[in-house]
From TrEMBL:
Residues 948-962 have a biased composition (Gly residues). This is DUF4175 domain-containing protein. The chain crosses the membrane at residues 29-55, 61-82, 156-173. Residues 857-970 are annotated as: Disordered. It comes from marine sediment metagenome. Keywords: Membrane, Transmembrane, Transmembrane helix. Residues 877-891 have a biased composition (Polar residues).
Length: 1098
């Protein structure tokens, strides 16, 4: 194996040759890069010249050809001119040969030295070493850099520079075509933006979405300071062209395309400029109209409010909730929507979460402060489709908003109801405190503090807020027995709520004013209180008497006075008295020293003076100005109702005054305690008379008991005298008890076990001619003895009425002797229908005189044949319902039996017709009859003045007020049941009243309610249902007032119109009905139109 010989100097030659090789590669790469740059810039220049100035979109084929050619050229140039020179390599021998070729002084020594050094088989290494050293010495004198030529690189560099300068000039001076050409070649399938010469500043609506049938208007604004006119058009995809009309300045061009029913594409072209520049068309997408089908909200309140979340499935839009709440809004649209968001005024936009169906959207809105929001529906490009509330495609700047109202948690309130000021308390006594507390969401603490003689305050009572009822705090404080007269105790109350809102604050507190309680002698205080109560009762009683007298005067004005002068004179007196009543009420309310127990009376008196008493003065003034007598029918009843209300309030005050004297509110009001003074006086006299009657009856019974033991034949003169005195006394008391009875004892007895109702078949009314001299006929008395009387007593009806009527008035007086025995009269089977004959009355009631009136008899019969031959009168009662009404007035004597409708008069018995229409007659006097209530109901359509007997019979129409007597059994049972229920209610009300403070307004209202409820109970128990109905409204009103006062929901309104002139008061009262001013018509129309849109949720 031959070892390689390392010759000295050969390494230096190799380094020099390597440097030459590197320089040659660098020169070739530089030349290749310059050539490539020349090719690139040249190809780009060609592309710009080929497609940059194309008037429309360059052909796709040309664009592809250019792209391929440029790509291939660039690839070949880079590969051949850059990559290959960079990878080019030569051996040292090749480099040595290249150097020797450029420097002939080296001859072949350099190549020989390189080859000999690599030849390991040389026989003489010394000769080789010497040859290498000589070559090395000659190479050191050689300039190696001169052997490499850069001429080619410089030529390509010049070519590249020229190409770059040319392309730079295009970019600088023709940027539009250059950019367009580059884009066209780089993206042959895409739209190439145009190089417009006109500057567009604004174009609407560009790409948009419209609802079907919505109008489309395209507006383009250009930069045209010189106002040069241009030709502007809207080009529709499909060939249609719409001319755009310019404004006077030629800066705004517009075209209206009308309602759009389907999706279209358009472009705007002004001269040679066209938009859009980045694509061929704008797109107007027509979509289904979107409406809100439903809105729902779930309000979640702050935890400290302890309010349960509330869900409103029929949400209208406005949000109102306590501050710190959150509202989860869910909206369901009529059609799928691309997207929606909550746009708040002066707050961040809240995106809405879209459901899978695209119709339901949800978002959470924080309620931290007052604000407003609306729902914005957008398309995929973010363009606004619609606002809610707003019209479709509304302008974002002018759109309406739904309000967001954040209800701030107000501080709590606390005040003393009783006592309402500084008080005096007896030694060792108790002070009933009553606080009215309120907070929006409940209290967390309530404490009463007290201090004695200037010492520091300390808590004397702490209340669990959860035990507060109706916003009231009741506490009875017992003062220390060690306190002496003259000591002063100062006290106040403090409450706190539970507010806990981050960033807002914690609990809020409030406290009452500071009051004092002065310790005094207990006996002295009790004496002063008793005097005040007595004085208050005296003045209220005097007021009641004065007001009751004016109610009587009002009744005189309504019913008694016959001239305007009489009414005006009495009305003036009423007005003066009503002013005195109000003045006294106002003086009591302002100046009387009410204590904590009667403080509620103070409220009632002030209310009475400001409301009913003031109204009564105005009504009395209107009555005193009466000009026509007919107007009193409207004015007097209104005044009477107001006066009755005042009387009722005063009576109630007097009734409950005793209960207010102490704190014990469970005491029952005394029987009759709510009656007026006049009624009480009448009852007192009646009671005294009845007591006297009872005593007289007792004496009569004792006297007759002694006389009963003596035979009549053995009576002495004194006994007979006593009997006469007893008879006279009995007659006296009988007259006392029976003074209103009529001669009903003379009537025949009648059986009402089988009541009937029959239909009237025919009512014939004929025009008749009064017989000559009929009115001047003398009265004839027809006396009938017992022997001449007889009865038919028919068992069946076989005949009908004849069809004729008398033509003479009744001038006969029948006087029949009573029968010896009471016969049993047949109750015949009545026909299914009745027929009646009625004529015009031949006389009026005032034409009659007593000499012709028949005398009531006990005769009764069941008539058949002949009962209807003539409309004759007489005292015999008929049980067969046969007869004719006739055309003469009935007699004033009592008649009985069974009958259909005829002339009205004194009668009793059974009415067997099912309808009453009113056929005239004479007025039946009001008296208590004895017939029982019967089954059936009569349809009463009579228009005659109501009147008549009060008693049993069938149910019919309403009449005037009658005498007190029995009520129908069903009604009586119902009234008894209602009275029992009312008693239960009274019992509950009395127990509830015991929980009220006596001096509280709510306690006062509750005592009034108990008094009125007792009166209703008594009226129902006595079947006085009209009285109960009359008091019912007052009772319910009083109970509602108590509930309102207890809940602190009483609003006090001060009416200051009293001090205004009359013409100003009239103008204020008539403002609601007067027409609106014409000059404000436009503003008012806009205001109400806006309100209507808000109500519709738009």
């Amino acid at each position: 194996m031959t070892e390689a010989i390392h010759y000295q100097g050969i390494d230096e030659l190799h380094r020099d040759l390597a440097d030459v090789q590197a320089q040659r590669r660098t020169a070739r790469v530089a030349a290749g890069l310059a050539a490539t740059a020349t090719v690139v810039c040249g190809s780009l220049i060609v592309a710009v010249l080929a497609v940059g100035y194309w008037p429309d979109q360059p052909p796709t084929t040309l664009r592809w050809m250019l792209l391929v050619a440029i790509a291939v050229g660039w690839f070949v140039a880079i590969r051949a001119l850059v990559v290959r020179p960079a990878l080019w390599r030569q051996t040292p021998a090749q480099v040595a040969r290249y150097v020797e070729a450029h420097d002939r002084h080296l001859r072949n020594g350099l190549i020989n030295a390189v080859l000999l050094a690599d030849d390991t088989g040389q026989p003489s290494p010394q000769l080789v070493q010497r040859a290498i050293q000589e070559t090395t010495q000659r190479a050191r004198r050689l300039d190696w850099s001169d052997t490499v030529s850069f001429r080619r690189s410089r030529r390509w560099a010049c070519a590249a520079l020229a190409a770059v300068v040319a392309f730079g000039a295009l970019v600088t001076f023709q940027p539009g075509p250059t950019r367009r050409a580059l884009l066209a070649v780089a993206m042959p399938l895409r739209y190439v933006a145009r190089d417009n010469t006109i500057k567009l500043t604004r174009l609407s609506p560009r790409d948009t979405a419209l609802f079907a049938g919505q109008p489309l208007e395209i507006i383009a604004t250009i930069d045209n300071p010189q106002g040069v006119p241009h030709v502007a058009e809207v080009v529709i995809d499909g060939g249609q062209v719409h001319t755009m009309l310019p404004t006077d300045s030629n800066t705004v061009y517009a075209a209206s395309l009308g309602p759009v029913q389907k999706t279209l594409r358009y472009a705007v072209q002004i001269d040679d400029s066209r938009w859009p520049v980045d694509r061929r068309w704008y797109t107007v997408t027509v979509i289904e109209r979107i409406k809100v089908n439903s809105m729902a909200v779930r309000l979640t309140y702050p935890a400290y409010t302890k309010l349960q979340p509330r869900v409103d499935d029929d949400f209208a839009g406005p949000i109102k909730a306590p501050a710190g709440s959150s509202a989860v809004l869910t909206v369901v649209f009529s059609a799928p929507a691309p997207g929606a968001q909550i746009q708040q005024r002066q707050a961040d936009v809240i995106p809405m979460i879209r459901s899978d169906d695209g119709r339901t959207f949800t978002a959470t809105i924080p309620v931290d402060a007052d604000g407003a929001y609306r729902i914005v529906v957008r398309d995929e490009r973010g363009e606004v489709l619609r606002h809610f509330p707003n019209q479709p495609n509304g302008d974002e700047e002018r759109g309406e908003f739904w309000p967001i109202t954040a209800i701030a948690d107000r501080p709590p309130t606390v005040r003393f109801i009783a006592p309402g000021g500084d008080v005096s308390v007896g030694q060792g006594g108790r002070l009933a405190m009553q606080l009215s507390v309120a907070d929006d969401y409940g209290l967390w603490a309530a404490t009463i503090y007290a201090a004695t003689d200037g010492k520091s305050f300390r808590p004397i009572h702490q209340v669990d807020p959860s035990k507060l009822v109706g916003g009231r705090l009741d506490y009875v404080h017992r003062f220390d027995d060690r306190l002496q007269a003259g000591d002063i105790v100062t006290y106040y109350a403090e409450v706190a709520d539970g507010r806990d809102l981050p960033g807002v604050g914690g609990p809020q507190t409030a406290r009452t004013a500071t009051f004092t309680a002065t310790i005094r002698d207990a006996a002295e205080l009790a004496d002063q209180r008793a005097k005040r109560y007595a004085e208050l009762r005296r003045r209220l009683t005097a007021l009641l008497k004065l007001q009751a007298a004016q109610r009587v005067n009002t009744g005189l004005c309504l019913s008694v006075h016959t001239t305007v002068g009489q009414v005006v004179e009495t009305a003036n007196a009423i007005a003066a008295a009503q002013k005195a009543v109000r003045a006294e009420l106002a003086d009591l309310a302002s100046n009387f020293p009410f204590d904590q127990h009667t403080q509620a009376v103070h409220f009632v008196l002030a209310e009475l003076a400001g409301n009913e008493a003031a109204t009564a003065i105005a009504q009395a003034g209107a009555l005193s100005g009466l000009a026509e007598l007919a107007r009193r029918e409207r004015l007097a009843p209104a005044l009477a109702r107001t006066q009755e209300a005042i009387i009722a309030r005063l009576e109630t005050l007097l009734a409950v005054l005793a209960a207010l004297k102490t704190t014990d509110t469970e005491r029952d009001p005394a029987a009759g305690g709510d009656l007026s003074a006049d009624a009480r006086e009448e009852l007192t006299r009646l009671k005294a008379a009845l007591d006297e009657f009872i005593e007289a009856q007792r004496k009569i019974v004792e006297a007759t008991t002694a006389l009963a033991k003596t035979p009549a034949d053995d009576l002495t003169a004194d006994d007979r005298k006593l009997l006469g005195e007893l008879a006279a006394a009995q007659d006296k008391w009988e007259a006392f008890l029976d003074e209103v009875f009529t001669d009903l004892s003379e009537l025949a007895r009648q059986d009402f076990a089988s009541p009937l109702l029959l239909k009237e078949l025919l009512s014939i009314k004929t025009d008749i001619t009064m017989a000559k001299d009929a009115l001047s006929a003398e009265a004839v008395e027809m006396a009938v003895s017992l022997e001449e009387a007889g009865i038919e007593n028919a068992q069946a009806l076989t005949t009908n009425l004849e069809k004729w009527l008398p033509d003479t008035p009744d001038r006969q007086k029948w006087s029949m002797e009573d029968p010896v025995d009471s016969d049993s009269i047949e109750q015949t089977e009545l026909p299914t229908e009745l027929q009646d004959m009625v004529g015009d009355l031949l006389e009026e009631e005032e034409d009659l005189f007593d000499e012709i009136e028949d005398i009531t008899s006990k005769w009764t019969d069941s008539l058949d044949e002949g009962a209807g031959w003539e409309a004759a009168d007489g005292p015999i009662s008929n049980m067969s319902a046969q007869g004719v009404t006739g055309n003469v007035l009935p007699n004033s004597s009592e008649i009985s039996g069974r009958s259909g409708e005829g002339r009205t008069g004194k009668s009793s018995g059974e009415f067997v017709q099912d309808e009453a229409v009113g056929k005239g007659g004479r007025r039946t006097p009001t008296r208590l009859t004895g017939e029982p209530y019967q089954a059936g109901q009569v349809r009463d359509s009579s228009a005659e003045p109501p009147g008549g007997a009060t008693g049993g019979g069938k149910l019919s129409g309403a009449g005037s007020e009658g005498l007190e007597g029995p009520v129908p059994p069903p009604l009586a049972k119902e009234l008894e049941r209602m009275a029992a229920q009312q008693a239960v209610l009274v019992n509950r009300a009395e127990r509830l009243a015991g929980k009220f403070a006596a001096g509280d307004l709510a306690g006062m209202r509750m005592l009034e309610t108990v008094t009125l409820m007792n009166r209703v109970r008594n009226d129902l128990a006595r079947y006085r249902y009209r009285n109960a109905l009359r008091i019912r409204a007052k009772t319910i009103t009083s109970l509602r007032d108590a509930a309102a006062a207890l809940g602190g929901r009483v609003d006090v309104v001060a009416d200051v119109t009293d001090a205004l002139p009359a013409h100003l008061r009239d103008a204020i009262h008539d403002a609601a009905e007067a027409p609106l001013p014409a000059e404000f018509r436009r503003e008012l129309e806009a205001y109400y139109r806006r309100l209507s849109r808000r109500a519709d949720g738009k």
